[in-house]
Design a protein that fits this description.
CATH architecture of the largest domain in chain A: 3-Layer(aba) Sandwich
Oligomer: homodimer
EC number (chains A, B): 6.3.4.3
CATH superfamily of the largest domain in chain A: P-loop containing nucleotide triphosphate hydrolases
Pathway (chains A, B): One-carbon metabolism; tetrahydrofolate interconversion
Largest sheet of chain A: 10 strands, mixed
Number of strands of chain A: 28
Subunit structure (chains A, B): Homodimer.
GO molecular function (chains A, B): ATP binding; formate-tetrahydrofolate ligase activity; methenyltetrahydrofolate cyclohydrolase activity; methylenetetrahydrofolate dehydrogenase (NADP+) activity
Strand content of chain A: 15-25%
Family (chains A, B): In the N-terminal section; belongs to the tetrahydrofolate dehydrogenase/cyclohydrolase family. In the C-terminal section; belongs to the formate--tetrahydrofolate ligase family.
Radius of gyration of chain A: 30 Å
């Protein structure tokens, strides 16, 4: 019988009474038959002996040793005619051998087939088998890439431009299961969260692993004003133009906004961090939008704080108990048996102890096992909340009498600053995330050894807490284009980019001719540099196009315009055309010729003269194109010119290369970034920074990439230096490391990781109508 | 045309050119026609003059003044033949007049019906109108109560009893949308969260408001051992027996477990709080169970901590700014206009300022408006985390230089101890929750005035953060019976019961002959007493049956058995039958004759002799029945005897009455609880407690119910006093108030609101297989 997926599937039915030797003889024949490319052993468990399994050539074995289990499933489900395991095996064979027609043999013994098969003659059994193969083939076909059938939503552009929430209320989003179907997701690959959000399972990557990726587009920005320059809106506008107007499959990948700033200062986000704000998310359908989204940041908070609680509790218990008492509690006798847990065995291995019988450890081994010996002064792990709570910037904990005087100074960061957020954004699967969570360094021992989350025994629990957060959240733009919202790490102490997994899923889904548009936080000196050298290094992906967002406002500021700050009126230099001489005095940015062909665009129309001037300057400095954007007022239609420029740039070859190799020494990596990206003359290391570098080299962290923690308001370390300053030396005050996330972060200046609330926070205007459930004042 | 819902609907079509007078004449005729029970004015807006509207008798007006709006909708949707507003109006009429056949007249003018109707002849228009009425009737029918079609899942009872997670893995849950359909939920009433959880919208209460409630069953327990006695498993077993075996509609309402203890000590929950644990939730289908459930506790954490951040930031801003500066920041000029926000106007009202022009306030009014003047020493609001983090029991905040020396001692509680959790559990709608959130008292001013969340301007934001948490989460038991998991307040500083809304939704869904089984935390002296006097008072619901759970283990302990503690082996007195003399020395519990007919049951079979003895004692002391339960080993089938007893008890009249009236003075209320429920001789108030009572009386809080914060391990205040102690005086150390939740809580002893982690927390055993995503070690 011929399947529809380029396969010929045949079965060989052996008699009931056949012996092991007869089966083996048959297998040996199949091993030698050049027409047979795969054998699926559909045998009763008793016949699946290790001799039989070992006889079949591994390259012909379509399902390996899991057959035992599969045998059972096939038997149970035969009447239903739907056998994923067999179909999977067939898919596996196709993947291994390419797409020519293949022969698969199902070796089949008619004996002992349980309830369903007992009393069934060979003919019936053969017919059933045929059904199984046919439906497997249908099923396998269903697993293949599905072309999109995206239905765009019409936007009614209004003039004057209404507030974001009014725009999004005027639209009715498609149900998310419909959206999922339109973009070729299988039903079992999504998990709805309400009506317009769904998490997408990572099994998609496996199903479409043979599918070529789409084009990968990065949206970065020039050094911004403190108001931010709207990169996220460009991402959305571009995707809407590509999908709704150019009819190309396309996907936006955005970061999840932090809750904290939502209730803080309007337009403040530029100052305090780097994640996108509710304002930008409002460009998505937000009728259903709730502040918790699908709970990923809450999961990070829970995981982060479990580590923190474990650290302090462990220090207390070590300080108040002798080795023996600690050991008997850590490895208790359960029903008379003492046993190490798998997490504890990992720790034993790191300590070089191969013994796994708890009673056989020497007192010295017991001591090194039970004592993490964390130095309270060298704990680097902080607690987090997703609230702008300035009073938690520096606190003393442990002051209750139950903590017996073990007080300690520490701090809370905002949740998105957690290393776990950086890990979520960089992990490329559940296994990778779990490994990274386990190796997070939370501090060091009194003898200077790093102490990890796994040493605390908490790594499994962290993986459990994060198991749903790792799935990207599918939403849609106002014009019905798909969006992944996933992860949102800080762009100074972390890398400030959305997740690797969202990008990877999207690249598979859009297909070879499609586009995935992702965004890097802060200015290109920070977000784009980290996108290239940290995120792309981790993911193995390479960008095809970079879009650099500039506004006339920001360009004027770099040309010498006055300061801009959130909450104050915009100085007239930015409104009045007569000041466009500011643009002419602009110096060009040093990072520009470094990498790829890049369209350079601007948005928020000022005057035609200004726009023409900026476009001309951009092209002269090497951009492959420069176009104005009007998505703010006109949605996707306002970005069609940009979409065409991106499509054009995407068809050109990209010559991507890393700025530095992993093997380059830490100091050299920092220097290369400072000189080639920031335009510094050199760097200057403090003694602390030098000592840390020595320590990291000694610990084997020297090959990690560098994640600069620098102000985003200047290419230099001085926020007031605008344009492209030269003649400065970049001071490296100190250096830290996020070993789980996998980077080292030099501190250039002081980074605030906890924003505060102003005298009149936004929440004064936020309200909920209890009858209509309408939210007011969020934007 | 006759609708199918007991209505005759007729329309009168007036000519295009009819005048206002002609319409009024027609309305007057309808007013007088005794066959006409309702009139729906389907008129163009221009004809809906106030004269016309005032002419129609209010009792005949099926849709009141909202017709203007409805008129528009009807026109727009006519071609779709689906008109909820008209159908709603019809339903309204039915509800108002009972169920006999009614005449409804649609008074209809053919003029000015917009695009859809222009150029349409009277016949077409009439036909369309007929369609509208017919589909409205179908729609209205769809809105009515739907009988259940619940499909139970077969349980394969295993012996020996496997671990909970193994049981639940062996089952395949029904998709939650199928479950929702089986229990008569409309598609638009659920919001799926993954495949086996869904939030249920509160609009259900409105749709089924005419539907009689089912029977309301409370499961409470005797004073437990520190291990807990498994009330939640009784709830689940009972519901499974009722629905899967007795084929009665039934619903379980459970509390959401806190994450903290999940990673702490197995069996510790009894010690540290009162919420159910993962162990109990594991009795539900938990293949899909994730620790975050649908994020309600995270929402509470976010809301709680926003209040905390607002408090400290406000104190800092008031301390560092003069009145004028504060005022100009709190009421800024936006485009030259200064305006109070609605939240600020509420505060002005509370201050007795009627002026709403910001420029017209006197300096004194400005000062009282801008200065909450919170006394740092009298801030009662705490931050929360959902982690067992003992080092946060007492901390100092504000030590960073940016906070300018405004340090303050404070603490974190575990998230479920937040007043917001208590509010979630008591609120009966979005509006009620918002009101309660606004009136939460966070501390008092230097002059002794209470300061509320609304004074801080944060109440709208809190409602926004909590808008999804208010919807109960629908899940299912292992046998496919429906369960609501919703809210889980502390049972000492709060009332320890699941949510009013979950109970109300469930009571509507099960229908008149169905059963809703809900659970009260801790022993009956605490959970049941608060269920009656706090929860039932707030909800207006009255229980029909109370099930009191007892175990031989706990009874023996009260009869003089040795101490039981989590993590230690059980003393042989509890295993060995020869000690059942302990049962005979048992004293009966004083609360027993207080209230309703109650089956008394026991579970975890010990010996037949013990069981017989306990059942006999229970009946002698007034229980309407007493039966053993075997749900632990046999699922619903093991609780059939209990289900029959509950069904029998539910058919008897209930004589419910509150223990005290709201008007009773605070001291008297406390004394009544102490004497009648705990068996105390009297109470003894500390001077602090007396001062607080005076203060609360002065603030008008005297009518609030009482929520005792007492140990759950004894009826008295001394955990070691077992059985039914007498001859003691209950000391009231201090008194606090949760004004938002709406109760006063006297403190009897010290209540821990933050559990800790032991030397070897459970998390050592918790792990996630990254390939299968299977969780191990949670139970």
């Amino acid at each position: 019988m011929a399947g529809k997926i380029g396969l010929n599937v045949t079965q060989i039915c052996l008699p009931r009474e056949c012996t092991e030797d007869e089966i083996i003889e048959e297998v040996l024949k199949l091993n030698e038959d050049p027409r047979v490319h795969g054998v699926y052993l559909h045998l009763p468990p008793a016949s699946l002996t290790s001799r039989v399994l070992n006889t079949l050539r591994p390259e012909k074995d379509v399902d390996g040793v899991s057959d035992l289990n599969v045998g059972r499933l096939v038997r149970g489900d035969m009447n239903q005619g739907f056998i994923p395991p067999l179909a999977n095996a067939v898919m596996e064979l196709l993947a291994r051998h390419g797409e020519q027609r293949k022969f698969v043999i199902t070796l089949y013994v008619s004996e002992d087939h349980g309830m369903e098969m007992s009393g069934v003659g060979p003919l019936t059994a053969a017919l059933r088998m045929q059904n199984v193969v046919q439906s497997s083939s249908r099923w396998a076909q269903g697993q293949q890439y599905r072309p999109w059938t995206l239905r765009s939503l019409k936007l009614q552009p209004l003039s004057p431009v209404p507030s974001d929430i009014e725009i999004s209320r005027a639209q009715t989003p498609k149900p998310v299961d419909q959206l999922a179907q339109e973009i070729g997701l299988l039903q079992e690959e999504t998990e709805a969260y309400g009506r317009t959000k769904a998490k997408v399972r990572l099994s998609l990557l496996d199903r479409l692993r043979e599918q070529p990726d789409g084009k990968y587009v990065l949206v970065a920005g020039i050094t911004p004003t403190p108001l931010g320059e709207g990169k996220s809106t460009v991402v959305i506008g571009l995707v809407q133009a590509l999908s709704a107007h150019l009819k190309l499959n396309s996907f936006a990948c955005l970061r999840q906004p932090s809750q904290g700033p939502t209730f803080g200062v309007k337009g403040q986000r530029g100052q305090i961090s780097t994640h996108i704000s509710m304002l930008e998310i409002s460009m998505l359908i937000n009728e259903s939008f709730n502040l918790h989204l699908t709970g990923d940041i809450h999961a990070i908070t829970a995981a982060n704080n479990l580590v923190a609680a474990a650290i302090d509790a462990r220090m207390l218990h070590e300080a108040t108990q002798k080795d023996k008492a600690l050991y008997s509690r850590l490895v208790p006798s359960v029903n008379g048996v003492r046993r190490f847990s798998p997490i504890q065995i990992s720790r034993l291995r790191r300590l070089g102890i191969s013994e796994i019988d708890p009673s056989a450890l020497t007192p010295q081994e017991v001591s090194s096992f039970v004592r993490l010996d964390l130095d309270p002064a060298k704990v680097t792990w902080q607690r987090v909340v997703d609230t702008n709570d300035r009073f938690l910037r520096k606190i003393t904990v442990g002051q209750a009498s139950t903590e017996k005087g073990h007080v300690r100074e520490t701090q809370f960061d905002i949740a998105v600053a957690s290393e776990i957020m950086a890990i979520l954004a960089l992990a490329d699967g559940l296994g990778d995330m779990k490994t990274r969570l386990g190796r997070m360094v939370v501090g060091s021992s009194r003898s200077g050894q790093p102490v990890t989350a796994e040493d605390l025994g908490v790594s499994g629990a962290l993986a459990v807490l994060m198991k749903d957060a790792i799935k990207p959240t599918l939403m849609q733009t106002l014009e019905g284009s798909p969006v992944f919202v996933h992860a949102g790490p800080f762009a100074n102490i972390a890398h400030g980019n959305s997740s690797v997994l969202a990008d990877k899923l999207a690249l598979k889904l859009v297909g070879e001719d499609g586009f995935v548009v992702t965004e890097a936080g802060f200015g290109a000196d920070i977000g784009m540099e980290k996108f290239f050298n940290i995120k792309c290094r981790a993911s193995g992906l390479r960008p095809n196009v970079v879009v650099l967002v500039a506004t006339v406002r920001a360009l004027k500021m770099h040309g010498g315009g006055p300061n801009v700050s959130a909450g104050s009126p915009l100085p007239r230099e930015y409104i009045d055309e007569s000041h466009h001489s500011l643009l002419q005095s602009l110096q060009l940015f040093p990072w520009f010729p470094l990498w790829l062909p890049s369209p350079w665009l601007l948005h928020r129309t000022d005057t035609q003269a200004e726009i023409d001037l900026v476009c001309q300057m951009a092209k002269e400095s090497g951009a492959s194109d420069a176009v104005p954007c009007h998505h703010w007022a006109r949605g996707g239609r306002g970005s069609v010119e940009l979409a065409q420029a991106v499509k054009q740039a995407g068809s050109q070859p990209s010559h991507f290369q890393f700025l530095y190799s992993q093997e380059t020494p830490i100091v050299e990596k920092i220097r290369m970034i400072a000189q080639k990206v920031y335009g510094a003359d050199d760097i200057e290391l403090s003694p602390e920074a030098q000592a840390k570098i020595d320590y990291y080299n000694q610990q084997g962290y020297g090959k990690l990439p560098i994640c600069m923690a620098k102000t985003h308001l200047s290419l230099s370390h001085l926020p007031e230096k605008k344009g492209a300053p030269t003649g400065f030396t970049l001071p490296i005050r100190d250096i830290r490391a996020s070993i789980g996330a996998g980077f080292i972060y030099p501190l250039v200046g002081t980074m605030s990781t906890m924003p505060g609330l102003p005298t009149r926070p936004c929440f004064y205007d936020i309200d909920l109508d209890p009858v209509t459930e309408e939210i007011t004042g969020l934007f």
